[in-house]
Amino acid sequence: MQNSTNSQMEGSSESKLQLLRSRIHAVPDFPKRGILFRDICPILKDPTALTAVIDLFEEHVKSNHWEADLIVGLDARGFLFGPLLAQRLGIGFVMIRKKGKLPGTTVSVAYDLEYGKAEAEIQEDAVAPGQKILILDDLLATGGTLFAACELMKKRRAEVQGCLVVIELTELKGIDRLKPHRVVSLVQY
Fold first, then answer.
1. Beta-sheet pairing, 70-74 with 92-98
2. CA separation for the pair 50, 88 (Å, rounded)
3. How wide is the angle at C-alpha 161 spanned by C-alphas 132 and 171, nearest 5°?
4. How far apart are CA 39 and CA 95, in angstroms?
5. Residue of 58, 59, 77, 151 marked catalytic
């Protein structure tokens, strides 16, 4: 019985992954020549595909036995999926934003981008020391933004249980930058 249930869940998961793959559009030469952009907008406009993303993330959270207190979403596409997953799990959602976008006292961390530097910040009281955190974004490329988010959580003395992304661009090896954190990516290119 248990094997049958696991087999059905795997089949259901695989059909959801196929749906996601069919909804992620490749856009050549965007935002500049030579870049193949992976567009998630078709996922957002299809309620079945959007539900599939949240279902798959929920399955990974449960199968990894993560018991998070908060989902932390990265500016800006982490804000699209993060609150939905947080609501599904019955936990809170917190935003990491670009410097200067949050009111009140904030804590920030600087990080390098392929084309310069940036700063990410969180409200000082958004995450308490010892809270268990899952960080969520739409894409893992070079890992700079997710690494900065992990560093920001470390600065807050929170426990990062893992990182969740819809898409991973494997050739850029961003996952290596995030070690020792566990990363779950739904679709890899």
1. parallel
2. 13
3. 145
4. 22
5. 77
List the structure tokens of 97: 């934003």
* Residue 114 appears among annotated catalytic residues: yes
> Is 77 a residue of the active site?
yes
Stretch 17-34: mean pLDDT = 97
Q: Which residue carries 């935002």 as its tokens?
A: 31
Catalytic position from the list 33, 58, 59, 114 = 114
CA 92 remoteness from chain centre: 15
| Structure token digits, residue 183 | 């990363």
d(CA 55, CA 134): 16
Chain segment 158-180, per-residue pLDDT in tens: 999 999 999 999 999 999 999 99
